[in-house]
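Comment on both lines for my students:
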Amino acid sequence: MAALLAILTFAFFITLEWVVGKVMAHRRAIAPAAAASPAALALPMQPVPEPVFVAGYALPSDYHYHRGHAWVRVLGPDTAAVGIDDFARRLVGRSTRVALPKVGSWLRQGAKALRIGDERRMADMLAPVEGTVVAVNPDVTRRPSLCTDDPYGHGWLFKLQSPNLAANLRNLLSGRLARKWIEDAREQLELRLMALSGSVLQDGGAPASDFAEHLDDDDWKRITETFLLTEGAET
């Protein structure tokens, strides 16, 4: 009887050791995948396409544009990068401060998502698509002017994962619609600037590249809120 008990005890511990080994091996196998999540962080920004200019503004053709002048570049089936377009860059002026959403936060399409500006004034901008922020551009946090110096390239702002990316993109502009939209935006901006001061316009009526610096704070606020669609927008 004692011999049988010893054999059963030995068999029990052998079995227990085998089960524990299997469990630990499984945990080691899935650990790298968990550490690498979300996968979007491994997706690099693609090279910026050749610049295309519409009405004097750079408008790369393979980007999608929100009417609040933020762009979206698709990086994967549910992953995208976000930045500001050339129109917003000139509208706001050279940025020396930026407030980006936190990693892990959820953004809603059309709600306020970030702020850019300088020591004197800041402009809100809307999220062009909804989703969870999975990365912010560390270069922009260190050097905010990058988002206005190189808005379509190294100045991208953040990446997000969107479960409804394809549906969100249908609410954005691209191709012929984007070109017509930016042409209309330039015309409306010129009319507003002419009503304020001719000193912010170049010969021929086009806005000077630094026109934002010549606007007083109230005029600047009204114009940015109008074109960035932030007046009355939800946070």
Summary: Helices lie at 2-36, 86-92, 138-142, 146-149, 165-169, 175-196, 217-228. The two ends are 76 Å apart (CA to CA). The longest strand covers residues 70-76. The domain at 48-230 is CATH 2.40.50.100 (OB fold (Dihydrolipoamide Acetyltransferase, E2P)).
